[in-house]
Amino acid sequence: MDVWLLILTIIGSILIIGVNIYLFYMYNHPDDNKDVVGWLCRIVVIVGSCIVLGIVLLLPLDIANSRGSGGGINTDILWQIMLICYWVFLVFLIPFMILLYETDDEKPIISRICRAFCLEFFLLIAVTGLALIAFGSMR
Fold first, then answer.
1. Which of 48, 66, 106, 133 could serve as a FRET partner for 34 with CA atoms 20 to 30 Å apart?
2. CB 29 within 8 Å of CB 4
3. Is the CB of residue 82 less than 8 Å from the CB of residue 54?
4. Using CA atoms, how far apart are residues 9 and 11, in angstroms rounded to an integer?
5. Count of domains forming the chain
6. What is the pLDDT along the chain (139 residues), one digit of tens a residue?
7. CB-CB contact of 74 with 6 (8 Å)
8. 95-125 burial, b for 16+ CB within 10 Å, e for fewer?
9. Cβ distance 83 to 37 under 8 Å?
10. Residue 104: helix, strand or coil by DSSP?
């Protein structure tokens, strides 16, 4: 295993997390500090940004790993993990957090979560229908 490639990967991951937290701190609004939903949305945004930047930086890592005798890192598994995480965030977590954040603040948290789940269910039905239509029209 190439030690320098592994060290650069770890340092790059730490820098990605640090930059995302710093940027989110800089562009944060103080009115969102009032409840748990705001903090959950913040965590989803930070982790989602880390996943997107990780996918972008995974391509140079894959190329550097395949040069010469190889770096010894199994990038196929890394690609699968990152793309599955990206899909879960894109289809489930981000729309759910948007729907949860937009619910009425005066209602109890359980009713807010139930309403967001119901809206997410209808959204998933619509997305699945559009995906099946698009898949069926491909040749």
1. 48
2. no
3. yes
4. 6
5. 1
6. 678 878 888 898 899 999 989 988 888 877 766 677 888 888 898 999 999 988 998 888 888 888 766 667 788 999 999 999 999 999 899 999 999 988 888 889 899 999 999 999 999 999 899 999 999 998 6
7. no
8. bbbebbbebeeeeeeeebeebbeebbeebee
9. no
10. coil
Two tokens, residue 84: 């599955």
Contact 55, 69 (CB under 8 A): no
- What the block records as the tokens of 11 is 């340092």
Tokens (6 digits) for 26: 């800089």
Q: Which residues have CB under 8 Å from 24's CB, separation 6+?
A: 42, 45, 46, 49
CA distance 110 to 75: 41
- Residue 70's domain comprises 3-137
Is 82:55 a contact under the CB 8 Å cutoff? yes
Side-chain-side CA neighbours of 65 within 13 Å: the count stands at 17
Separation between Cα atoms, residue 72 and residue 81, nearest integer Å:
17
Amino acid identity, residue 12?
Answer: G
